[in-house]
Inverse folding.
């Protein structure tokens, strides 16, 4: 157990921060204006600015971002937990952006663009997975020093994570429910719950390219959990029976199952880190802890593509 107290350096005076979440006004530059500035400064960086901020701070509201880390205990490990929790939310945000855009490329039948985007999405998932390298330096004793301050807060209440699950197709009306009372979050999550997922759009591409997909897989209540469909499995089998690098649908299937595999590794790293840190104690969010996580860790987003590895 870290038996030394944390020193939390004060980086930003919160009273000076413009706490608006909206983008701040700032000037744009051009190649010409940048050349003129470099000529004026003799090639040295700009160091004097008007007002109480500078363009680097304003472009991404960095002072606001760096004033949001508030450990609530004297436990040494809490700062690491807070920073990594926030980093992961940002990475989920980045991943979600890529997945939604891949989905839009599929809707436009631009399968090549979608696969390019999925390449970056996979890199995001790997980055998320490696966040457990840092988080698993938190020991059981170190976690216990601040665990009570979490109250009933739990990752299962992450609406950003829920968006990622929903765009990938793991819909749950039950888990979405936790956000119904948050008016600035619920409408987008409810819409995601009720909309087709990336996988639903991939299946629609298969149908548009002439593969026989049953009506029920192309038009259904999207808010219900995905159920494997025999016609979708048959379609993917047909696609995988032609494993040429210039078969775009084959490469799409590979790109999707690759994301699924990487996400499984992410979930597994969470699962084993949790098992190591809290053992078989209940979670802060009300669940049984690892026993509950065991179920969600086994989830696969695109079951019919996994099935193509098995004999028909
Ligand atoms: C390092 C210490 C951590 C422990 C001991 C831990 C433990 C748990 C437990 C026990 C659950 C089950 C739900 C419940 O709380 O009852 C859970 C779920 C979850 N945790 Fe963690 N967690 C940790 C860190 C994190 C971090 C840093 C994140 C990311 C921000 C995270 C994201 C999640 C998510 C998204 C779920 C829901 C999984 C799902 O719905 O499939 N966890 N966690």
């Amino acid at each position: 157990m870290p038996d030394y107290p944390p020193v939390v350096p004060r980086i930003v005076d919160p009273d000076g921060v413009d706490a608006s979440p909206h983008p701040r006004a700032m000037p744009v530059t051009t190649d010409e204006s940048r050349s003129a500035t470099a000529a004026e400064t003799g090639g040295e960086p700009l160091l004097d600015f008007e007002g109480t901020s500078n363009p680097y701070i304003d472009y991404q509201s960095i002072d606001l971002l760096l004033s949001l880390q508030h450990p609530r205990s004297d436990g040494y490990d809490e700062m690491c937990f807070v920073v990594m929790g926030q980093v992961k939310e940002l990475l989920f945000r980045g991943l979600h952006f890529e997945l939604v855009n891949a989905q839009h490329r599929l809707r436009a039948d631009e399968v090549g663009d979608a696969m390019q985007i999925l390449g970056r999405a996979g890199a995001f998932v790997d980055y998320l997975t490696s966040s457990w390298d840092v988080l698993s330096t938190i020991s059981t004793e170190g976690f216990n020093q601040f665990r009570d301050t979490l109250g009933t807060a739990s990752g299962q209440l992450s609406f950003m994570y829920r968006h990622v699950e929903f765009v990938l197709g793991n819909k749950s009306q039950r888990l979405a429910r936790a956000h119904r009372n948050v008016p600035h979050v619920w409408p987008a999550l409810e819409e995601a719950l009720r909309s087709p997922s990336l996988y639903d759009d991939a299946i629609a591409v298969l149908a548009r390219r002439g593969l026989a997909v049953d009506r029920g897989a192309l038009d259904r209540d999207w808010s219900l959990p995905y159920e494997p469909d025999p016609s979708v499995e048959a379609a993917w089998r047909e696609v995988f029976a032609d494993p040429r690098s210039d078969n775009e649908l084959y490469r799409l299937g590979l790109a999707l199952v690759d994301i699924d595999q990487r996400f499984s590794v992410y979930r597994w790293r969470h699962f084993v880190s949790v098992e190591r840190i809290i053992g078989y104690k209940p979670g802060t969010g009300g669940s049984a802890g690892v026993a509950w996580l065991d179920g969600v860790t086994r989830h696969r987003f695109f079951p019919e593509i996994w099935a193509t590895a098995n004999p028909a």
User: Anything to note?
Assistant: The two ends are 53 Å apart (CA to CA). The mean pLDDT is 97. The chain has two domains: 18-65, 78-307.
